[in-house]
Amino acid sequence: MTGIETAFTPLQSLLGGALIGLSAVLLMLAQGRIMGATGILSGLITGGTPGDKGWRAAMVAGMISGPLLIVGLTGQMPVVEVPVSLPMVLIGGFIVGIGVTFGSGCTSGHGVCGMARLSKRSFAATATFMVVCLATVFVIRHVLGV
Amino acid sequence: MRLLSGYIVGLVFGLGIAISGMINPAKVLNFFDIAGTWDPSLAFVMGGALVTTFIGYRLVWRRPAPMIGGGFQLPTNTRLDARLIGGSAVFGLGWGIAGFCPGAALPALGTGQVGVFAFVAALLAGIWVARAVQAGLDARREESAA
């Protein structure tokens, strides 16, 4: 099976990417921390002091507000098309949770913050998950044809 | 202040994820589907985020400390070990199956789609299980070292 066609959006993607980078810089400026979705979530569900959980919850609330603000400004909800079945979403989600925990980070923590710090671990992690994701998508779409 | 800074960082991040197109799993998977419905937009997201973070971090690090809290909390581990690479490979597998990574899924919750909630629930379950396994492995390692 082939995927749903999506439009090539270099300018929006560059602008959105710059905003993602800006948020990482703001967290470093405000709290001196690396901004990673994995770290934020891990800290929310395990351990930590109530105060520590508070700002993490506030950050997730801010993230969720992002698309809502876009709806408010433009009247249009950003497009989210899930091109795979619900079981694949659930299985994939669980596997992602295992992987990011043992790998100590995901696209935001390793791919953006870690590589911007020129961390050797983050370069290795990012190269690994990008290559494996590429291979997985190839096998699922072009070998298994799911 | 910590709550407010957390919320603002989250909001800027969520806007970036939404505007860049990272919020849409169809677009993310198409980035990895070079042999099919390829959409190179994500390279621009990554580029915009990396350049902004690379420059912004260096400006912030000219300060002696962040605005809140004691000092900059940067990872000090530089070891490339099996946990990092194995975990990242597992993450890449899950990402390729589901199309969501943690940082893109959290803002996508704002769109209210069932598939996003399913992914985040499975993700949290995966993180929780992996944290428990990791704690067990660490305890065993300490025991055998003692």
UniProtKB/TrEMBL annotation, chain B:
Lineage: Bacteria, Pseudomonadati, Pseudomonadota, Alphaproteobacteria, Rhodobacterales
Cited InterPro entries: DUF6691
Keywords attached to this entry: Membrane, Transmembrane, Transmembrane helix
Domain of life of the organism encoding this protein: Bacteria
One Pfam assignment: DUF6691
Protein name: Sulphur transport domain-containing protein
Source species: Roseovarius lutimaris
Transmembrane segments: 42-61, 82-106, 112-133
